[in-house]
Amino acid sequence: MTVTTPQGFRSAGIAVGLKSTGKPDLALVVNDGPQHASAAVFTSNRAQANPILWSRKVAQEGPARAIILNSGGANCFTGDFGYETTRLTAAAVAAELNADPEQILVCSTGLIGTGDQAFRDKIVGNVPALAAALSGSDTTAPAAILTTDSVEKTAVHRGDGWTIGAMAKGAGMLAPGLATMLVVITTDALLDDAALDSALRGATATSFDRLDSDGCMSTNDQVTLLASGASGVAPDETEFANALAAVCDSLAAQLQADAEGASHNIDIEVLGAASDSDAIEVGRSVARNNLFKAAIFGNDPNWGRVLAAIGTTEAAFDPYQVDVSFNGVRLCHAGAPDRPVDECDLTPRKTHVRIELFAGEHSATIRTNDLTHDYVHENSAYSS
Amino acid sequence: MTVTTPQGFRSAGIAVGLKSTGKPDLALVVNDGPQHASAAVFTSNRAQANPILWSRKVAQEGPARAIILNSGGANCFTGDFGYETTRLTAAAVAAELNADPEQILVCSTGLIGTGDQAFRDKIVGNVPALAAALSGSDTTAPAAILTTDSVEKTAVHRGDGWTIGAMAKGAGMLAPGLATMLVVITTDALLDDAALDSALRGATATSFDRLDSDGCMSTNDQVTLLASGASGVAPDETEFANALAAVCDSLAAQLQADAEGASHNIDIEVLGAASDSDAIEVGRSVARNNLFKAAIFGNDPNWGRVLAAIGTTEAAFDPYQVDVSFNGVRLCHAGAPDRPVDECDLTPRKTHVRIELFAGEHSATIRTNDLTHDYVHENSAYSS
């Protein structure tokens, strides 16, 4: 149980033939109330899939009664036909729930440009079967949203009389605003839309928005938070926000650990920045540097590529005063070589790069992955 | 003959043991005058190697009498010792030419952090031998500046009574403000510093600055233009600028064709942009998208990844009105699928992606490469 751990939710995941593997590819999460509060954040890519265009309206106008998600096709850049597919999908779910189509959120993930008549038929035609499979103790939904993920991603937080449950999918095109990620978070806490929105924006800013596996921003990302109020408990808003942040952080770490082709999970910790945004910019410049990422794949603590990367930023610091450590060994001090690189062991999957700017008191950690043969292979063969 | 094709120049390239392979790794180009006019452009990375810090001063104050270049070590982030190595290198050349150290440009390329006593000794101690090898019909200099390049890069333009000669090295860390490139261009045309500077800035802006092989900006890039005036001919400045632009364009194409590990040379042509800078931003967003680059490696015309990339820009256009063609086949029209992808053949090394924004009359072409297993391999093993 994940998204159904909180009271007031049912979910289901079934296989409808969108994935050539025959694996589950259609999921539904229903909020049975009594409340239908919600919040959502979407990709900041201007190229947005049809379900994003639809769900933005639902999220604004609400109330959100349910969310349906498919893998096996992004329904992005599929024209008016694709948008109508999304609307028909919402309408089919609404018919099962005695709701309005405008109360149903829709998410899709998979290959851009996929969304033909067969795609539509498989989704819309199978909504009754999906609804029939709904259960308050469901364990099938998390698998149905996966694409190239190798494992299900879920998280649960138990508060004092209220709970949070969550499921996510990631794998590739992982970069903020946001990553190719679909995330559904449920809670039975008694909170209004404004409190949920504030908590969700805070939680995603320090978790998903600091995950930058491959620098590629998706067209389909959506993180949705649904609240049933079924516990009857109204938690302290700060306590809830902290719990939600911990749930999102756990999911972001799971996404990083299962990123396409990765052999290292790299945490880039930037310290001593003049501002939070400087720390994020510096960390992200390293996370997006292919030469650095290839070096880590080769277990090469190439601190020169870190400095070459951060030198391209506008952040306030003196490149010749910077310290850089890999896995606890300071290899560069004040912009010059320090400890011998052979003191540093990069064979563990978990890799920690620490950059001290000596320009202020702010810090941030950006999560990324290495650039590997498997990444190239998976992404050169993805659509074939 | 390349940089010695114009009158008034001698050059040489020798092996001094900086490269573990024993290949040539130290080059010298001397301007014997009668003029010593020059212009230079440098990496815009804030992390700059010692030879860049030194050469910026020489280029500003002039006159530049000669340029010495080493491969096998970047002398970057090597502290005060490294800067002194650069100064001693210039002084050794100056002693051979009866010049001042401040009249000698210095370039280095190779691994960042490399620049110890042995590095210094090999360069400074071998300057007399290098000077003794100088010749007006030299063919050895271009090989001595190569790093992971597989072929020498040279270009010659013959004007009406004047000539331009050039040599370049590229391979990896190819991204503008400039690429890991060292370029020396010579001319016997009679032109002053201001005319050379204007021509060089114009030529690099449309050539090297539009080459973005791997998105990684170097710490050591320098493009230098030296003019001897030895032809006695003062060409029309526009004619000279056009000729210089053609020389730089040829070198940029050679750098693209020999980029580390690449299996495709990808020209991303952006048409219908509202401004030149919009066209460049859109082209560069595609050139830096790892998922697009991996798809091209797999001969997959994945136009969805083009749209996902350009959607991250601030450029003025409607993502749902864009056309995208691969090698002459329009796969996306008005933001929806057009011709079947199997009509498109991506097996040729030369790949042409055409993006029509329908937002104005401006255009630009960005050169890039695919993301391959060989790129990952070369850059994971580079320093070992």
From TrEMBL, chains A, B:
<keyword id="KW-0012">Acyltransferase</keyword>
<feature type="binding site">
    <location>
        <position position="169"/>
    </location>
    <ligand>
        <name>substrate</name>
    </ligand>
</feature>
<protein>
    <recommendedName>
        <fullName>Arginine biosynthesis bifunctional protein ArgJ</fullName>
        <ecNumber>2.3.1.35</ecNumber>
        <ecNumber>2.3.1.1</ecNumber>
    </recommendedName>
</protein>
<dbReference type="GO" id="GO:0004358">
    <property type="term" value="F:L-glutamate N-acetyltransferase activity, acting on acetyl-L-ornithine as donor"/>
</dbReference>
<dbReference type="InterPro" id="IPR042195">
    <property type="entry name" value="ArgJ_beta_C"/>
</dbReference>
<comment type="similarity">
    <text>Belongs to the ArgJ family.</text>
</comment>
<comment type="function">
    <text>Catalyzes two activities which are involved in the cyclic version of arginine biosynthesis: the synthesis of N-acetylglutamate from glutamate and acetyl-CoA as the acetyl donor, and of ornithine by transacetylation between N(2)-acetylornithine and glutamate.</text>
</comment>
<keyword id="KW-0055">Arginine biosynthesis</keyword>
<feature type="active site" description="Nucleophile">
    <location>
        <position position="180"/>
    </location>
</feature>
<feature type="binding site">
    <location>
        <position position="147"/>
    </location>
    <ligand>
        <name>substrate</name>
    </ligand>
</feature>
<dbReference type="GO" id="GO:0006526">
    <property type="term" value="P:L-arginine biosynthetic process"/>
</dbReference>
<feature type="binding site">
    <location>
        <position position="180"/>
    </location>
    <ligand>
        <name>substrate</name>
    </ligand>
</feature>
<dbReference type="InterPro" id="IPR016117">
    <property type="entry name" value="ArgJ-like_dom_sf"/>
</dbReference>
<comment type="pathway">
    <text>Amino-acid biosynthesis; L-arginine biosynthesis; L-ornithine and N-acetyl-L-glutamate from L-glutamate and N(2)-acetyl-L-ornithine (cyclic): step 1/1.</text>
</comment>
<feature type="site" description="Cleavage; by autolysis">
    <location>
        <begin position="179"/>
        <end position="180"/>
    </location>
</feature>
<feature type="binding site">
    <location>
        <position position="384"/>
    </location>
    <ligand>
        <name>substrate</name>
    </ligand>
</feature>
<feature type="site" description="Involved in the stabilization of negative charge on the oxyanion by the formation of the oxyanion hole">
    <location>
        <position position="110"/>
    </location>
</feature>
<feature type="binding site">
    <location>
        <position position="379"/>
    </location>
    <ligand>
        <name>substrate</name>
    </ligand>
</feature>
<dbReference type="Pfam" id="PF01960">
    <property type="entry name" value="ArgJ"/>
</dbReference>
<keyword id="KW-0028">Amino-acid biosynthesis</keyword>
<dbReference type="GO" id="GO:0005737">
    <property type="term" value="C:cytoplasm"/>
</dbReference>
<dbReference type="GO" id="GO:0006592">
    <property type="term" value="P:ornithine biosynthetic process"/>
</dbReference>
<feature type="site" description="Involved in the stabilization of negative charge on the oxyanion by the formation of the oxyanion hole">
    <location>
        <position position="109"/>
    </location>
</feature>
<comment type="pathway">
    <text>Amino-acid biosynthesis; L-arginine biosynthesis; N(2)-acetyl-L-ornithine from L-glutamate: step 1/4.</text>
</comment>
<keyword id="KW-0068">Autocatalytic cleavage</keyword>
<keyword id="KW-0808">Transferase</keyword>
<feature type="binding site">
    <location>
        <position position="260"/>
    </location>
    <ligand>
        <name>substrate</name>
    </ligand>
</feature>
<dbReference type="GO" id="GO:0004042">
    <property type="term" value="F:L-glutamate N-acetyltransferase activity"/>
</dbReference>
<keyword id="KW-0963">Cytoplasm</keyword>
<dbReference type="InterPro" id="IPR002813">
    <property type="entry name" value="Arg_biosynth_ArgJ"/>
</dbReference>
<comment type="subunit">
    <text>Heterotetramer of two alpha and two beta chains.</text>
</comment>
<keyword id="KW-0511">Multifunctional enzyme</keyword>
